[in-house]
Write a structure and sequence with these properties.
This protein has 213 residues and is an alpha/beta fold. Helix content is 38%, strand content 16%. The protein has 9 helices and 8 strands. The chain has a 6-stranded parallel sheet. The protein has a two-stranded parallel ribbon with strand order 2-4. α3 packs parallel to α5.
């Protein structure tokens, strides 16, 4: 069993030619790599596995196709069933979701019952609408407890989510927060270079923030 379950976002399983290898056991949550190695954290994998050629890696339509495929996977009943089995086995205290992983988990929350062990759900740079999420009656009854919380950490200068806004036509909770009484919004600035979208989950400060909430 693991204290922390990590639910990764888009394109985690894609090797982009010479630019980036597919993520390993930490699923891109490199700040939690030590926790994964000790067994305190474990990633739920649901990604498309592929190796993009050099030219595919430079082609935005290739990545857009992966995005659409993974969006379908994220809400497929079989994926949600696998997640239920995974959570039942791990009995986590904390569930941390990044980007499209937040969408996957929000689909799960609509109908499923959480393990009693879960005390904290954290969304980071969530690919979710700003008007909130639907949850099952089980989750709704827990929200009022001081031993259970749902946190949405967001930052408005995430270029990846602004691209998602342009493609979907809707604002994202990972940019501007979520207008829901169920959610505690927290602004978390993205500073780490290379890929701002994954800045937080590569940050030791963010890891400490998640664990100390």
């Amino acid at each position: 069993m693991s204290r922390i379950v990590l639910i990764h976002g888009f394109a985690t399983g894609i090797t982009y030619s010479v630019f980036r290898r597919a993520h390993g056991a930490d699923a891109g949550f490199s700040a939690f790599r030590g926790d994964v190695e000790t067994g305190d954290a474990k990633a739920f994998r649901w990604d498309v596995q592929d190796e993009a050629s050099f030219f595919q890696s430079l082609n935005p339509f290739y990545s857009w196709n992966i995005y659409r495929r993974e969006r379908v996977i994220a809400k497929h009943p079989e994926t949600l069933k696998r997640l239920h089995t995974f959570l039942s086995a791990e009995q986590p205290e904390i569930i941390l979701c990044h980007s499209m992983g937040s969408f996957l988990f929000s689909e799960y929350l609509k109908t499923e019952v959480l393990p009693v062990s879960v005390k904290r759900i954290v969304f980071n740079q969530a690919d979710l609408p700003t008007n909130g999420i639907d949850v099952s009656a089980d989750v709704l009854t827990r929200v009022g407890s001081d031993k259970f919380s749902i946190i949405n950490s967001h930052c408005f200068w995430d270029p990846t989510l602004w691209l998602a806004v342009a493609l979907s036509g809707s604002l994202k909770a990972g940019l501007l927060g979520m207008s829901s009484t169920l959610i505690q919004n927290t602004f978390w600035p993205l500073w780490r270079p290379i890929n701002l979208h994954t800045s937080a989950i590569r940050s030791k400060r963010f890891r400490d923030f998640v664990l100390d909430l």
